[in-house]
Amino acid sequence: MNVVVRKLRGVVVVIFLVATSIMTTVFALLPVLLFHPAFPGRVLAVLRAVTFAWFSCGAMLLESLGLSVSVDIRGATDKQLANDVKNLLVVMNHFCRLDWLFTWTIELRYGWGRSKVIVLKSGLRHIPGIGWAMQMLRYVFVNRSWTRDEERMSCVMRSIQRDGPASVLMFPEGTDLTKDTKAKAQQFAKDRDLPQHENVLVPRSRGFAHIFNLMKSAPSPLVLWDVTVGYVGLPPGSGEPEFLAGLWPSRVHYRISRWPAEQIPSDDTALTAWLKERWAEKEQLLDDYNESGGMHMMLPAESAAPNSPMAESSDLDTLLPTAMASPFPWDAWRRSGAPVFLVANFMVFPAMLLWFSWARWWLCIASFILAVSVRYVFVQCSCLRIVSVGCVCVYLIHGPLRTAGVQSGPL
After folding, report:
1. 116 pLDDT band (50/70/90 cuts)?
2. Treating both helix axes as pointing N-terminal to C-terminal, what angle do 146-163 and 40-60 enclose, rounded to 10 degrees?
3. How far out from the chain centre does Cα 190 lie?
């Protein structure tokens, strides 16, 4: 693919995601949120349904109409995975800053995006549009201060479990794989006589153990997915600049191992050892994957216990080269509400902006209030810059429409 075309397609995808997230947050999520005190469970369900439709549209752009990324999923069977969404904890290696984006392809296939909660860095909540929506959906934001993070995790998880099922995605490594983070992780492992890895970082067990035990106490049986991800054509630590420059993977490989909670120790010490064993298996798995040039996603069955889920899933099919990609699930995409989401963002919301002055002012004022409330717009900035951003929003959205002679319709 031509470099210019790749860059253009990357820019179009980013514009779509950012623009639709802002429009949906302002015109759909914020009005619904006003009813939260009276109907907390139903409001959360609506917020999740709208967000899942947005995830599904993003997955479609990644796999089909936009970037043509092939997705291959191996491990536990589809029937097993589809029944786990009531109380699910997903742990995954953090290869790059865009891991969360490509997980949409799994969420669409197995439906766990409808109740998804991500444990992520606190600074991400300040991204306009996307960050605002994540706060409304009660994502768990951590500051790496255990005293504060423990209280926040407990509060958010209890609130989520009270209002319905939860599927929690977390990256125990705490950050993505780069040269700097790998060097720090290897030095940390060396100082403590731990194995030094090349493909993964040292997992942080304290937050993982806390969330695991909180979810295990829920009424629904807890299931854990141990997910290993590998990319073809994407270097470690890649993020938004590389994506905009036209650098994205041609294929994404997922290995999913399913662990019922009763097969995982609850004691903190034993749970820490269990997590390190899983990361050692990921290291071996990714070593084989890289040596094969991204053609194999093989499971190290010889290192798994005879009765473990990993050994059970290591049948002939899972050990074959991943020559066939999983087709895009159009039926699941239609059932997700994505078509309605597209109609709303490309017809209903633009029509409201064109014909009703209150809609234009609502978009400007709501965006400005949200920007001020979080005090950040991508980077920490002064109050003067925030005011400037608000004025620019008003000018860009309201001014040109009035200058072009667009008249407001009847209220």
Report:
1. confident
2. 100
3. 31
**What is the rounded distance in angstroms from the CA atom of residue 231 to the CA atom of residue 251?**
6
| For the chain, percent of residues with pLDDT exceeding 70 | 80
| Alpha-carbon span 62 to 248, nearest angstrom | 10
Q: Compute the distance between CA of residue 174 and CA of residue 278 in angstroms, rounded to an integer.
A: 16
Q: Which two tokens stand for residue 46?
A: 């609506």
| Whole-structure pTM value | 0.81
- C-alpha span between 396 and 344 (Å, rounded): 21
Longest dimension (CA), the chain: 73
* d(C-alpha 217, C-alpha 86), whole Å: 13
- SS3 label, residue 96: coil
State whether the Cα torsion 304-307-308-310 is positive or negative.
Answer: positive
For residue 6, count other CB atoms closer than 10 A to its CB: 15
Q: What is the CA radius of gyration of the chain?
A: 22
Give residue 212's pLDDT.
93
